[in-house]
Design a protein that fits this description.
Blueprint (H helix, E strand, L loop, with lengths): L2 H54 L11
Length: 67
């Protein structure tokens, strides 16, 4: 191989290595975000249930049914 081709090949290998590393980092980030989103979804479900339970009960100004 000529020096020019070897240099180009080496540059391509370096670029590929950087891209591979970046892809791994992005994959880890996506996995972490997916886990965080699931935690947030569960929190929303819990809060939604609490709000529904509160809205089904008597309001503070409403007399209980035994009056």
């Amino acid at each position: 191989m000529t020096d020019e081709l070897e240099t180009r090949l080496m540059e391509l290998e370096i670029r590929y290595s950087h891209l591979e590393h970046l892809t791994e980092e992005l994959s880890d980030l996506v996995r972490t975000q997916a886990e965080e989103i699931e935690v947030l979804r569960q929190a929303v479900r819990t809060m939604r249930g609490q709000v529904e339970a509160l809205s089904e009960g008597p309001t503070p100004h409403e007399r209980p049914p035994h009056y």
